[in-house]
Amino acid sequence: MRETMASWEVYSRSVLRFILAFTFSLHGYRHLFGVFRVAGGRRAAIPMALDGLPSVMGGLEIVGGLLLFAGLLTRPTAIVLCGELLAAYIYSAFPRGIWPIRNGGNETLVYLLVFLYFAVAGGGAWSLDCLLENRRKRKIAAVPA
Amino acid sequence: MNASAQHPTRTPYLLSALRMAIGLLFFQHGAEKLWGFAHGRIDHNFATLHGFAGPLEVAGGLLIFLGLFTRPAAFILCGEMAVAYFRSWAPRGFWPITNGGEEAVIFCFVYLWLVTAGPGPWSLDDWMLRGSRKTEVASSLPEPLSVKNG
């Protein structure tokens, strides 16, 4: 049972990557183009730390989000985005208070942690990185000795 | 098997550290509902879904932090977050970024991933497993996963 579950990890990590890259990239569109401005629920009271960064960072979020969604250059992309998220937490969440639930930094920290994992472990089985590497390996294997 | 799908050897420890941090971040929400943590809104109407989420999040957050019954706990919390998203946030708009449900979405999928990834080596699950199988100390470290190459 445990082994079966663990063998699915590479797929569920890719699913996690699709979802988080997508929701993360939405912040880029909010930053650059001013869409998704309507804030409902709690976000009206506590703005998310990521949205407190200067708008130019939106480009990083869109490009990084797309690369991460595709799983292309997953590791370097994830490291860069980790840097951005850390900056966002220190710059806009931390001055508001110590507890992430009150300073709007909760989502930012979850993104940071998960992207850090992608940076170390890679993007999982369903990623362009994985596809390209398999293709390269097959090409090497096809060369006659 | 290839490098981007494979666990490098130290990755399981990062998984454990990440799991603890996620558990603590999640615990805050339960502590807010039960005890008004960080001047939050207390909700003791345990018969309602929002009130019931309090003890669920306190217990679940602790279990995830300790790495005890990680997979079943993560499965239940994944379901809880899905319910939370569709009951409280989805009616406020389509996009997670505007309806306020972004955190519920990311927690939901992080827990779905934890169901498969497991707790990693720094966890009570793993500690008990090592106790029951003294001969296989490294049993928790993921063995090379058998993933078919396209």
What does this structure look like?
- Helices cover 69% and strands 0% of the residues of chain A.
- Chain A is an all-alpha fold and 145 residues long.
- Chain A has one domain.
- The longest helix of chain A is centred in the first third of the chain and has 25 residues, at 9-33.
- The N and C termini of chain A lie far apart (42 Å).
- The mean pLDDT of chain A is 90.
- Chain B has one domain.
- Helices cover 61% and strands 0% of the residues of chain B.
- In chain B, helix 2 packs antiparallel against helix 3 (70-89) and helix 3 (70-89) packs antiparallel against helix 5 (102-117).
- Residues 1-5 and 143-150 of chain B have low confidence and may be disordered.
- At the A-B interface, helix 1, helix 2, helix 5, helix 6 and helix 7 of A face helix 1, helix 3, helix 4 and helix 5 of B.
